[in-house]
């Protein structure tokens, strides 16, 4: 469909080519081919490592947008009327299958109980359903294997002594009979979990988020930066000075303050550390997909 629209718009044949196939067959053939000069990839870190290995002999240019373990930092002066529904959405939108989704929620101790109470109430209103149901907030996960992977993290958290306050294994999932065999799961909230847990370190990529308390600004910055990823973060505070201080110190390619997923497509997009290499968007994309040439003429 996209190719038909491009052709209709007047894009010359051959400018855009779509090749269907699996990563091991088609993907590897493309990234290792000497006539493919650069690669823009969005996906997992292991696949990015393989792309880097295959492209290295040809010194190809790479733009890699990888995983995230994105923190939301909620200070005691946050506006909870806006913060709670937005953080529910940032945690569970598209079943949590967005690289920018929030999976670690740090809440200042003085408001931790109040935030958690409101967050759980709002999460339980988040309806799981089929895409044709206009009242559904989220649908099924991408595959059976991925559903089992996400569930395995919840089992690990429970084995570590964490509390599962709502969602998987706690609440009943209600679906039409014909959809009960689908890859659905409820949005799940975990508390009483240590920063060293795999649920706080690894990208789950599902409707699972961890909520933990913190005391000070310095402490929460250190904890937010303690993972290998650095894609996105959100900061909630009415203190403008604090917002600027914290945003500057967070090791994240994108930082939203008092909002989430507001995008200006002309601004650079990309992550730090294991969340990727390079930036894309407007000027950055133009520079990535073109070559600068210096020509000196004597006359």
TrEMBL record:
The active site is at 65. PROSITE patterns: ALDEHYDE_DEHYDR_CYS (PS00070), ALDEHYDE_DEHYDR_GLU (PS00687). GO terms for biological process: retinoic acid metabolic process. It comes from Myotis myotis (Greater mouse-eared bat). Residues 2-295 form the Aldehyde dehydrogenase domain. This is Aldehyde dehydrogenase 8 family member A1. It holds the Pfam family Aldedh. The keyword Cytoplasm does not apply. The keyword NAD applies. GO terms for molecular function: retinal dehydrogenase (NAD+) activity. InterPro entries: Ald_DH/histidinol_DH, Ald_DH_C, Ald_DH_CS_CYS, Ald_DH_CS_GLU, Ald_DH_N, Aldehyde_DH_dom. Keywords: NAD, Oxidoreductase. Belongs to the aldehyde dehydrogenase family.
């Amino acid at each position: 469909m996209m190719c038909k629209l491009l052709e209709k718009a007047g894009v010359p044949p051959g400018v855009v080519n779509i090749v269907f196939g699996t990563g091991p067959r088609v993907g590897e053939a493309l990234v290792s081919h000497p006539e493919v000069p650069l690669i823009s990839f969005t996906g997992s870190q292991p696949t990015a490592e393989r792309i880097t290995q295959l492209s290295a002999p040809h010194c190809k240019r790479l733009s890699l947008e990888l995983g995230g373990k994105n923190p939301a930092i909620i200070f005691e002066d946050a506006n909870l009327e806006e913060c709670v529904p937005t953080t529910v959405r940032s945690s569970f939108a598209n079943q949590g299958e967005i690289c920018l989704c929030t999976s670690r929620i740090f809440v200042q101790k003085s408001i931790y109980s109040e935030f958690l109470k409101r967050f759980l109430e709002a999460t339980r209103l988040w309806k799981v359903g089929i895409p044709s149901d206009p009242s559904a907030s989220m649908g099924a996960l991408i595959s059976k294997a991925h559903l089992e992977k996400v569930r395995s993290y919840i089992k690990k958290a429970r084995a570590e002594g964490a509390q599962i306050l709502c969602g998987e294994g706690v609440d009943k999932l209600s679906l039409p009979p014909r959809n009960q065999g689908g890859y659905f799961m409820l949005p799940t909230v975990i508390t009483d979990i240590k920063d060293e847990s795999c649920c706080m370190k690894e990208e789950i990529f599902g409707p699972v988020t961890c909520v933990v308390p913190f005391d000070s600004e310095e402490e929460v910055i250190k904890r937010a930066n303690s993972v290998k990823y650095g894609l996105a973060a959100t900061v909630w505070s009415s203190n403008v000075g604090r917002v600027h201080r914290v945003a500057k110190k967070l090791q994240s390619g994108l930082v939203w303050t008092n909002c989430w997923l507001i995008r200006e497509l002309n601004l650079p997009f990309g992550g730090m550390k294991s969340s990727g290499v390079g930036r894309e968007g407007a000027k950055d994309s133009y520079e990535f997909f073109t070559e600068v040439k210096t020509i000196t003429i004597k006359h």
